[in-house]
Automatic annotation (TrEMBL):
GO terms of biological process kind: galactose catabolic process via UDP-galactose, Leloir pathway
Protein name: UDP-glucose 4-epimerase
UniProt-listed Pfam families: Epimerase
Domain of life: Bacteria
Length: 331
């Protein structure tokens, strides 16, 4: 298939591009390289451009004539979204509308949309299935809910438009071949932050809150390896094209680990006893987030291959070491 991938030079997008490329698809990656990197695009052709640039989008769709779009390009940091909501609504909503407009003009009918567990806010029960109410508690989550609403309404209005929204839980790890991974100079996510602390980039790792109603008092998350998530995209796309059915699916393993457990495994993998301090809770963190992914499994046949926290952290660590030497080489 001819597939347009927005944000395909970023962390998750680049892993999905790798998986699609391995299957022989014809790929065009549209990315502004704000957080992505040209070297992360292992397959297809990279077109550097903005989703705000509607004329450019038109030219790209006109020339490439994609059969499907995978839309990863978005701003993704919860804390930043609280400080700079407008940036989130502009990038995640307004720019997505530009893309959808262009898709309509060029009659592109299939979309895989990147959504998030943040749409649920603090869920009322665990594990979280797709029928739970959407109660986002920050502008990032709200921007994704808005787009899910827009997509639902377009699919209702346009008979030939269909999409799958994938709600990601905590995505982590890196390409087992160590070619790509999370490549941000700074890190806010737990696993990357822990590994950058082990690497000496930060003096210590803060554990945000030890008084949650969980067995060890720290928050529990469902960490999914990025290659398993990439496979979920391939299967979702096949399902969409084969059935023509719009769906929303959670992506996670269905069980989780506490912050303390993640820290212990990070120390074991790195063999570095990095400093850890216990601090106050971080605003807006739900105590527990576990995906019920039975829908994804049932409809697409998805089966995790890397449901192993040690493997996830090991691939992230191998990548972190390589990325750090890449960065050093550039300075
Ligand atoms: N944490 C720490 N110390 C750190 C970083 C994180 O203790 O330095 C804790 C957090 O408080 C949280 C857990 O580790 O309890 C996981 O935090 P992350 O920042 O790694 O991930 P989140 O669960 O906050 O974020 C994920 C996705 C978001 C999504 C959100 C939904 O990355 O895109 O889940 O709640 F919005």
């Amino acid at each position: 298939m001819r597939i347009l991938v927005t944000g395909g030079a970023g962390y998750i997008g680049s892993h999905v591009v790798k998986a699609l490329g391995e299957q022989g698809h014809d790929l065009l990656i549209y990315d502004n390289l704000s957080t992505g990197h040209d070297w992360a695009v292992l397959y297809g052709r990279l077109e550097v451009g903005e989703l705000a640039d509607t004329r450019r989008l038109d030219e790209v769709l006109q020339a490439f004539r994609p059969e499907a779009v995978l839309h990863f390009a978005a701003s993704i940091q919860v804390e930043e979204s609280v400080r700079e909501p407008l940036r989130y609504y502009r990038n995640n909503v307004a720019n997505s509308l530009n893309l959808l407009d262009a898709m309509e003009r060029h009659d592109v009918r299939n979309l895989i949309y990147s959504s998030t567990a943040a749409v649920y806010g603090i869920p009322e029960r665990m594990p979280v299935d797709e029928s739970l109410p959407l109660n986002p508690i920050n502008p990032y989550g709200a921007s994704k809910v808005m787009m899910e609403t827009v997509l639902r309404d377009i699919a209702d209005a346009r008979e030939n438009f269909r999409y799958i929204a994938l709600r990601y839980f905590n995505v982590a790890g890196a390409d087992a071949g160590n070619r790509i991974g999370q490549a941000y100079a700074d890190a806010t996510h737990l696993i990357t932050r822990a590994l950058k602390t082990a690497n000496g980039q930060y003096p210590k790792l803060s554990v945000f809150g030890t008084d949650y109603p969980t067995p060890d008092g720290t928050c529990i998350r469902d960490y999914i390896h990025v290659d398993d998530l990439a496979d979920a995209h391939i299967r979702a796309l096949n399902y969409l094209v084969e059935t023509g059915k719009t769906e929303i699916m959670n992506c996670g393993y269905g069980h989780g680990f506490s912050v303390r457990e993640v820290v212990d495994v990070a120390k074991k993998v790195t063999r570095i006893d990095f400093p850890v301090e216990e601090t106050e809770r971080r605003a807006g963190d739900p105590p527990e987030l576990i995906a019920d992914s039975s829908k994804l499994r049932r409809l697409t046949g998805w089966l995790p291959r890397h449901d192993d926290l040690e493997f996830i952290i090991r691939t992230a660590w191998d990548w972190e070491l390589k990325y750090r030497s890449l960065l050093k080489g550039k300075v």
